[in-house]
Each structure stands twice: as structure tokens, then as C-alpha cells.
Design brief:
Shape: elongated
Radius of gyration: 18 Å
Number of helices: 5
Order of helices and strands: HHHHH
């Protein structure tokens, strides 16, 4: 009896933890916009991903791994396209940085889920 109840509780607990992780990450994603006070966000990832619309997929920046820069570039292309994202950044930088923050929140939640899977496999 307890075994059957326990097997139903764990998936619900995992979903609750992941939803909580997502909620905490998304909660203040618009805070401070259109001003950006984080140097990584302002000078590295968003700027480099928009700069890649200028004929090359080389971000010319490899101090941080470029994977997140490529993810942002793809999201910006899907949302605005090449020329339009530059105009949007000039007119409403909060929209561009907001999308970048939501992407970061989603990837952080996926990382939490992968950590749960790894922990379950490690300690099972």
C-alpha cells in the first residue's frame, strides 16, 4: 500500500520542485529593465548574439563558452529577425533583455531537472 502511494508522490514532488525553480527564476525577470546592471548580460551575451547578425556566426568572444550566445541568437532570429532585433534593442532594450532572461530561466530549470535525474541515478 505505502509503496504504491510513494511511487505516485515522487513524480509530483519532482514536478513541484521544477515548477518552483522556474517560478523563482521568472519572478523578477523584468526587474531593472530597460537598464541592465549585470556586465555579462549587457556586454557579453546579448550584445554578442545580436552582433552575429552581421554576416558571421563567430561571436569573437570566448572568455565565456559561446553556447548561450548561440541560443540567444537563435531566439532573437525567431522572434525579430536580423535587422529588427537591432531596432528593437535601440527602441526598447527591455524586450530584448527580457527574452534573454527568460531563456536563461528556462535553461536553469532544465539544468535543475537534469540534476534531479543525475541525483536519482547516482543514489538509486
Amino acid at each position: 500500500m505505502w509503496r504504491a502511494d510513494r511511487s505516485r508522490i515522487w513524480p509530483l514532488a519532482i514536478v513541484a520542485v521544477l515548477l518552483g525553480a522556474l517560478a523563482l527564476r521568472v519572478w523578477g525577470y523584468r526587474r531593472g529593465l530597460p537598464f541592465v546592471y549585470n556586465a555579462d548580460e549587457n556586454a557579453h551575451f546579448v550584445a554578442r548574439s545580436i552582433g552575429m547578425f552581421g554576416h558571421t556566426y563567430n561571436p569573437n568572444y570566448f572568455i565565456n563558452p559561446p553556447g548561450f550566445t548561440y541560443v540567444l541568437h537563435a531566439l532573437f532570429w525567431l522572434r525579430w529577425g536580423g535587422e529588427e532585433v537591432q531596432r528593437t534593442l535601440a527602441a526598447d532594450p527591455g524586450a530584448v533583455f527580457g527574452l534573454a532572461r527568460l531563456a536563461s530561466a528556462a535553461l536553469g530549470t532544465v539544468a535543475a531537472g537534469l540534476l534531479l535525474v543525475a541525483g536519482a541515478r547516482l543514489f538509486d
